[in-house]
């Protein structure tokens, strides 16, 4: 990843600033963020970099190492939702969202060049990595001093209102606040955060990502339908969000909702409880308990939230058969990756087990890699 030389090759000059931000893996806490619940993601070492420089006019131009064409828009006032699609919508959406957070009567134009190591559509939040790297570069160039909550909201508004993906705010916080060998415990209602050490090395454990190769788009119907179902249930139950329910409420509300809506609610309520229990287990060093919660989370996503796929289910089953402490789908669902907690000495056996299971099922070969929790967004140059 060399965004500086890429920028120079595209624009014929050096960038003024370079920012990078990581993708993330959600250890546990899926589809709880937009229900004002709890999540426990960690940042990856794989990152997206955005190199940027001022222009003499008011045009915002974006180019990418992954795509030959660039997109330019004359004036921030013309960067509005609905006028850009595909990958350019994310950096342009960030520029637009910054203007919503901090009114900018006069903004110098910028050239942006994007280079990324984060696989798109694999459940690793390539979108948040791009948003936070672009937000860092743009606010730096424009002389703005946005707080972490403001930067996270910029990314979420870009994704929700500009791109049209109804995601929560977890991914942006993970990309901003990640630390090596640690996860970010986030309360999505209060936005309070706490860094939770994972201590994988001393425990002799590893986290392994299995990318099924199935690709999703959060703007597609399945994700939006799950969110709409949760919002409908909250209205029917008279609560602000599903965060306001706990597991003791489930027997009472089962008769008040149709079967599908109840199962959606049950996933969110039990997932919130699993996040809290996982944090406690990590702090106590009870890693077998952590693994059990991961597996229970996958079963809930499979049976109640119905967002897994046969390939994701097979990756989890193969991991457990290979001796994993726990395994689950990670990300929005309908494709993407699984995350597995396993004895570090068994990583090769795990890789072989998942690869062989996919071959037997005639699924495309998965990409199985050990992942390392890394640092959050920062200025590179």
Explain what the structure shows.
With 381 residues, the chain is of the alpha+beta class. The protein has helices at 3-11, 89-101, 126-141, 148-163, 170-177, 200-203, 221-237, 250-253, 259-284, 287-305, 310-321, 347-360, and strands at 17-28, 38-54, 59-64, 67-74, 110-116, 182-187, 193-197, 205-211, 326-330, 337-343, 367-371, 378-379. Helix 2 packs across helix 4 (148-163), helix 3 (126-141) crosses helix 4 (148-163) and helix 9 (259-284) runs antiparallel to helix 10 (287-305).
List the helices and strands and how they pair.
Blueprint: H1 3-11, E1 17-28, E2 38-54, E3 59-64, E4 67-74, H2 89-101, E5 110-116, H3 126-141, H4 148-163, H5 170-177, E6 182-187, E7 193-197, H6 200-203, E8 205-211, H7 221-237, H8 250-253, H9 259-284, H10 287-305, H11 310-321, E9 326-330, E10 337-343, H12 347-360, E11 367-371, E12 378-379
Parallel strand pairs: 3-5
Antiparallel strand pairs: 1-2, 1-12, 2-5, 2-6, 3-4, 6-7, 8-10, 8-11, 9-10
Large-scale geometry: globular
DSSP helical segment count = 12
Strand content: 15-25%
- Gap from first CA to last CA: 14 Å
Order of helices and strands: HEEEEHEHHHEEHEHHHHHEEHEE
Strand count: 12
List keywords for this structure.
23% strand; 8-stranded mixed β-sheet; 12 strands; 381 residues; single chain; 12 helices; alpha+beta
Summarize the structure.
The protein contains 12 helices and 12 strands. It is an alpha+beta fold and 381 residues long.
